[in-house]
Automatic annotation (TrEMBL):
Protein name stated in the entry: Acetyltransferase
Taxonomic source organism: Schizothecium vesticola
InterPro entries recorded: Acyl_CoA_acyltransferase (IPR016181), GNAT_dom (IPR000182), Ribosomal_N-acetyltransferase (IPR051908)
N-acetyltransferase domain sequence ranges: 51-203
A GO MF label: protein-N-terminal-alanine acetyltransferase activity
Length: 241
């Protein structure tokens, strides 16, 4: 039985394409992963400073997020990152829960998706985890459908313009800067939630506590992947400590 049998994703998922000898990506489920993930992030609300979701006040709030996104939207696939270099855990028989990543805004018509909702838990930062997890997602995205992949033409990455770490990760893995979306998002009650925005005053009549965000758009396309990015990503995955 595949861990993705319960996924409501618009593409079939072959687990073998989302694992290597150090990292595995599996369907994040409320029953197996939510409690550990919530408790690992609850002391670090800054994790959500650049994201439209979170921080989550309770474990039930995080479960609701998973249900509304992963289970209700076929364009959305939330993945738990498992570090296979660590001992087995309650969350996975092959290793420790190391974070979360997602495919979203996925289109079977336009053959595109976005990688986002990227959270690497604090103990696993600056290790092999993030590079390998994103690399596995890219391999699955650009592998032909006949070989079990998604056969996509484009993968997108959008980041808060002040989130230099997220932008560096994408650039390092071959994404190209494509532009800046000014005033792309409004974080409702962003001040209270610790959101980081563009720092510019909001228009007259905006609600107290709202925060405005500019967004950097980066993209990676199939021809760039075939033209050398695949090899670069594979080398980075092997080389990363």
């Amino acid at each position: 039985m595949s861990p993705f049998d319960d996924a409501n994703f618009c593409f079939p998922v072959q687990p073998g394409l989302l694992a290597n000898d150090r990292v595995k990506l599996t369907l994040m489920t409320p029953t197996r992963h939510a409690s550990a993930f919530f408790h690992a992030t609850s002391a670090h609300p800054d994790i959500y400073a650049h994201m439209p979701s979170g921080p989550f006040a309770t474990e039930a709030d995080f479960v609701t997020f998973l249900q509304q996104k992963a289970l209700a939207d076929p364009a959305f696939l939330i993945l738990a990152i498992i570090d296979k270099t660590q001992p087995p855990s309650a969350e996975d028989d092959e290793g420790a829960l190391a974070g979360m990543m997602s495919f979203f805004d996925t289109s079977t018509i336009h053959l595109s998706t976005e990688i986002g909702y990227v959270v690497t838990l604090p103990p696993f930062r600056r290790t092999h985890v993030t590079t390998n997890a994103v690399g596995l997602m890219l391999q699955y995205a650009f592998t032909a459908e006949a070989d079990g992949g998604m056969g996509l033409r484009r993968v997108q990455w959008k980041a808060n313009s002040v989130n230099a770490a997220s932008i560096r990760v994408a650039q390092r893995l071959g994404f190209r800067d494509e532009g800046l979306l000014r005033w792309h998002m409004v974080f409702r009650d962003g001040v209270q939630k610790g959101k980081v925005g563009n720092g510019r005053p909001l228009p007259k009549g905006s609600l107290d506590g709202d925060v405005g965000r500019d967004t950097v758009v980066l993209g990676l396309c199939w021809d760039e992947w075939e033209g050398g990015v695949r090899e670069t990503v594979s080398e980075l995955m092997v080389r990363t400590v």
